[in-house]
Give the backbone structure.
Amino acid sequence: MSNQVHHGLEGVFAGESAICDVDQSSGGLRYRGYAIEDLAEHAVFEEVVYLLLMGSLPNQRAFSEFQGQLVRGRVIPPHLFDFLQGIPAPVNRMDALRTAVSYLGMEDPDHTLNTHEANLRKAIRLVAQMPSLLAALHVHEGGDPALMQRSAGSHAEHLLTILTGARPDPFSVKALDVALILYAEHEFNASTFAARVTASSLSDMHSAVVSGIGTLKGPLHGGANEAVMDMLFEVDRAGDVRKYLSEKFSKKERIMGFGHRVLKKGDPRSDIIQRYSKELGERRSETKWYDYAIQIEKIMREEKGFYPNLDFYSASVFYLLNLPAPLYTPLFVCSRIAGWAAHVIEQHDQNRLIRPRCLYVGEKKMAFVPLSERNKG
């Protein structure tokens, strides 16, 4: 047995999966064999959810039935809705979301079952319920909570309606739809791996998702898109991108939205969402955020050799869609829940407890001294 340690498990293959292929050499990304570029261009989020959960793209009949399941499943218990509305604004929305999912797990009709069929039912319910949980955390003034949960339209249209209080235009729906597709899955990232570890103990779907949410809350995994937007605000106040970055570099401060543990040569998702950042800015006559981002990317590539990741241009997309900043990371959950659920199902279907080893580096062969004799003299 080798005692070589890979800190952070970097480069370690900890399992097999047929869900997502992240090709480090080419920077390619595929969901169950389908290129992310094709899915973003031609599919809608619900098709991608179906693909991740079921293993194949749906035909028209299956897709219509699946859409109906998601729309019908949007309602959450009234007492949970009321509880979430009562959470004070300063409380981290991810903390509230984590608690809400745990609560849903106790009331789910399949909460005692981990079969493939039961897991699929739980997964579909969770995907459907996520927007309603966000609505409860951010009810638009004048909105009717009961109607908001039952609003028609696609997943992206539903989210924009309940979080902004207005009917979105088709391009805004497409922009959010693409973002949801891009965030839906990314192999054994930290939150997905946490969910699989939980599932590997034969714990339930909701417990595994709670593990995922708790992991995504950490700033080294989730939250980068909100931090990117804060950075763009700072650049706007400073008025000089190069000077702003130079000061950051001199203080050795991290520039959010750049670098990726696996995709060292660039994130293909960034190239896709960048186009929507540009066009949204043009459509809203508010191009400065994209202009700042382009300048930052150019300097980071030339001086640091870093490429933007998905979060970098997603920040301005969410901002231009009038989505509330405290919900940027919960929106990530609304998308990644599909990937987490697919991995939990896969883990349960071919389960082996995930139990790695740890190389001990502490003291050895210490002689025990009774309490009465310690620290004498």
Observations:
- Strands lie at 20-23, 28-31, 34-35.
